[in-house]
Amino acid sequence: xxxxxVTLTYDFYIGKYETTFDEYDxxxxxxxxxxxxxxxxxRGCRPVINVSWWxxxxxxxxxxxxxxxxxAYDSEGNLLDKYGSVTTDPSEVIGxxxxxxxxxxxxxxxxxxSEGYKYSGSNDFDEVAWHKDNSEDKTxxxxxxxxxxxxxxxxxxxxxxxxxxxxxxxxxxxxxxPYSTSSSDQIGRGGCWANESRYLRMAYxxxxxxxxxxxxxxxxx
Length: 221
Known about the structure:
Blueprint: E1 6-7, H1 21-31, H2 53-66, E2 79-80, E3 86-87, H3 101-108, H4 125-128, E4 160-166, E5 175-176, E6 185-189, E7 205-209, E8 217-218
Parallel strand pairs: 1-5, 4-8
Antiparallel strand pairs: 2-3, 4-6, 6-7
């Protein structure tokens, strides 16, 4: 809070699912990185966990290079446009990246198909989310709960998701295409398998340092 109007003036793609262990493990094998711990819950199609913000953006850059796209991030974590120049305009980025907080919330709310639900796709969080009371204290395979209005899964629950931009305090002023670089803390959204319902609301935010990694936190691209 306070609630405020946000306008996005560009189109963007966002992952239907959270990034999985299968996808991230391929990155680790190719780059000789250590694979993140799965807590003995299983890998495969479960969302990758125990990854920092840096791990997530390095995965994005690797995937961009693999598909011959310009990298989205430099070594300092700044966004890059198609010419390799630093930008704060997400619409100028061609390569794979994490969603901005505003993009994330727009997608979670169902975009222009939104029906105004409290959680991503439903007012009943059991329908769309793995959470404290149904998760058996672990993650679950992506896409096994109901999708939201845009056909996107797990934007409430399962794992928290890193956003590309840094923490900032809201004001009542309308903002266009927001992208914050003013803090040392990154934003996370969505709630996770260990949370009660209030943390699964689409407006709920949290912040952590870029190096933080834990078993309730992953990402989508």
